[in-house]
Amino acid sequence: MRFWKELIKGVWAENPIFRLVLGMCPALAVTTSLENSLGMGVAATFVLVCSNAVISTIRNLIPNKVRIPCFIVVIATFVTIVDLVMSGFAPALHANLGLFIPLIVVNCVILGRAEAFASKHPIMLSIADGIGMGLGFTLGLSILGGCREILGAGTLTVWQGIPQLSIGGFKPMVLMILAPGGFIALGCLLALMNYVQAETAKRKGKTIPPPANLDCRHCTICKFGS
Questions:
Q1: DSSP 215
Q2: Exposed end of the chain (fewer CB within 10 Å): N or C?
């Protein structure tokens, strides 16, 4: 029961993009297309699951004073694997994502889960947490990237060999695939998520939760892990 609870929480209740509002750098930078969003999401999920598993395994061997550097070394190892594999098997995607693949090392979602969860829980729960948060992160990126690509280019692309959806007669808004469009799309989706949460609370007769404090001083992931 606890395994499944940890597995599904990242999809909705603690979605990294829409509920915790973490990992905003790749969320705004690479979500110009669905393909880029899926690629980044899969890469981050792999690193999340593997780093959570390793960190949970060695958590009792790491001195407390050097735990963050140790976590970064573990995470960087798996990011290097992702970088090399993607460069060899998906060079076009690798070129599109560019610098944001190495930057997964300092992604606050991954480092936050290592510090707040994997370093304090057994391996199976840590793997479940990594899978759930990875799926939630991928889902958030994909929704944001899909919306921006449809509105900004009138298409929806995935990978080579898969037919591309092209919306005939639609006049794209180029703004949506530019930097300002990322902020606009993210703001609208966050507003929608807050509205859905408020309506759900009303139907259940519960108090509407206040907006989260969206800055590093009030990191929701670290609060959950404390």
A1: S
A2: N
Q: Beta strands 155-156 and 165-166: pairing type?
A: antiparallel
User: Which tens digits make up the pLDDT trace of 151-204?
Assistant: 998 888 887 656 666 666 778 899 999 999 999 999 999 999 888 888 988 888
Alpha-carbon span 189 to 28, nearest angstrom: 13
- Listed in sequence order, the residues at least 6 apart from 207 whose beta carbon sits closer than 8 Å to its beta carbon are 201
Segments in 90-219 forming alpha helices (H): 91-97, 108-116, 123-153, 179-203
Dihedral sign for Cα atoms in the order 204, 206, 210, 215? negative
List, for residues 102-124, the tens digit of each pLDDT value. 999 999 899 989 998 999 999 99
Structure tokens at 137: 């992160």
- Residue pair 43/138 in contact (Cβ under 8 Å)? The answer is no
The model's pTM is 0.88
